[in-house]
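In the laboratory, one determines a bound structure by crystallizing the protein with its ligand and collecting diffraction data. In a computational setting the workflow is compressed into a single prediction: the sequence and the ligand go in, and a structural description comes out. We illustrate the idea with heme C.
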Amino acid sequence: MKKTLMLVAALMMTGTLVYAASADKGKALFESPTLGGGTTGKTCNTCHEDGKGLGSDLFERKQFTIMGMEKKSLAEVINICIEKPLGGVAIDPQGQEMQDLTAYMKTLTDKPAPKKARQAIEGC
Ligand code: HEC
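The predicted complex, in structure-token form:
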């Protein structure tokens, strides 16, 4: 009984982690003009295609400055971009949409730098 209660409590605490974040769903959100009820017709992809403007250290940073505002979490930064350029309403920072969105954004910032073309070896 006690164990069951603890399990339920643990599930409640980690509720948002029960469903794995989906980068595929996140990509759809990133390209959706209605994310957060957006009203300007813009999507994240309009300005950040292929991760443009997203620092490669985005997921390591603990402090963000966006449009002159200091923010402590990536979710807050994302919500500013939802409210301002998309003209929408902030989404739940812990919610599934935010998790999917950041899972996709991670694939953008994790992209390895383009490899240099293999150099021809002289004499071969
Ligand atoms: C109209 C263009 C535009 C759109 C649309 C837009 N952004 Fe941005 N975004 C910016 C600009 C400009 C900055 C940099 C602001 C600054 O430096 O103060 C930025 C910054 C960011 C940053 C911080 C990057 C860093 O490395 O510090 C994140 C994260 C971000 N945007 C996510 C998003 C997401 C997610 C969406 C979709 C909901 C989105 N943006 C939509 C223009 C846009």
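The longest helix spans residues 96-109. Keep in mind that any predicted model is a hypothesis to be tested, not a measurement.
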